[in-house]
Amino acid sequence: MPEQIYLTDENLLAAIPALLGFTPTNSLVIVAAVEHTDGSVRLGRTTRFDLDLAVRLPRVVVADLSRALGDQPVQRLIGAVVHDTSATDDLPYRSQLHQLVHQLHESGFTSIEFLHVPSFTAGATWSCYDAADHTGTLPDPAASPITADRVINGDRIYSNRDAFLAQFVPAPADIRTCIAALADPIAEDVQAEELAGDLPRLRRRLQLIDDAVTAATHGRLPTDHHEIAELIAALSSFLLRDIHLIQDTEQRCGAAQSLWLHLWRHAPARYAPTMTALTAVTAYLRKDGSVAGLIIQRDPRPTKLSQLVRRWIREGAEFTAPHTSIADVAQQLRTALTESTER
Questions:
Q1: What InterPro entries does the annotation carry (predicted)?
Q2: What is the pTM of this model?
């Protein structure tokens, strides 16, 4: 369930690095406050745009928000303009942002507030574009409750966007070629075990994956090529993959996302689409739309599952319904595998 909004403007600003997964600079970050059926207002989609693009081509921002939020009960949009203003006495890009607000109003977004913050440094002065007296001091982003929640559940907040994007750089080709040679015969064995209904062997492979997730909760990711190949090959089974679309605790979900992304970086081309789908679903269900969207963008052959996540992101779908459905299916599959008796 998305976080209910009890945040002041300054505390919402301090939470932005945690919402994105990195500390942005020269950015326009727009957070949607969405009203839910129970009357609560919760954090919706958080979207970052390059500030230069946003002020030059406001229609791009409007089109993106309209597509993602047009059919949602958006109570208001809060925009954070992240830009150092040491060279000017006025807030940056005031006239261009006024035009952006006008276009957003025309598209049906009636309540919009733009705030300026020079950097995400504790003690920085933030200001409002509409009211000169609406200003304050930024709390320490590291002490934000949302940051604490992300860190507890295994997320890392990167210092900048480049460091964040480094997660999505594949391992060198020679390493992935070596892993392919190890994984291919194992994947054939996995397929044979499924066709034969060899439950004991499939259970052992499930346990191997479970143990790797447990190790990831302690910050340990596999480095041995054979171990990586074993995991990638096991997850080529749709049964074992679907069981692991979700974990039973938030901590394990965070650890699993780190593990899947690590395996994706090492996955040969044959296995990359499956690892993409697994990472994307896990990230999306954890409300980590940044990771889900970016990894799908890097897949030239998206599976149907990845395409479904892409549609959820594009339409701004709530997390609750798919989370419940996937959790139910994953548990049923796990129970069927672990409790079945051989004929």
A1: DUF4192 (IPR025447)
A2: 0.82
Nearest to 81 by CA among 54, 46, 62, 43: 54
Q: Do 177 and 154 have their domain in common?
A: no
Encode pLDDT of 149-162 as tens digits.
888 877 889 999 99
Cα–Cα–Cα angle for 330, 335, 341, rounded to 5 degrees: 145
Q: Which of 254, 7, 19 minimizes the C-alpha distance to 120?
A: 19
**Per-residue pLDDT reduced to its tens digit, 227-244:** 999 999 999 999 999 999
Sheet holding 27-35, edge to edge: 41-50, 27-35, 74-82, 112-117, 125-128, 135-137
- Distance from the first to the final alpha carbon of the chain: 42
148 plus 188 within the same structural domain: no
Q: What CA–CA distances, in Å, run from 280 to 11, 95, 116, 145, 253?
A: 28, 38, 32, 25, 12
Domain range for 237 is 169-339
Q: Are residues 124 and 262 in the same domain?
A: no
To the nearest whole percent, how much of the chain has pLDDT over 70?
95
Query: What span, in angstroms and rounded, lies between the C-alpha atoms of 307 and 286?
Result: 18
Taking the C-alpha atoms of residue 164 and residue 71, their distance in angstroms, rounded to an integer, is 31
Rounded Cα distance between 33 and 40, Å, is 10
Is 164 part of a structural domain of the chain? no
Q: Which two tokens stand for residue 105?
A: 């109003």
pLDDT-derived band at 304, boundaries 50, 70, 90: very high
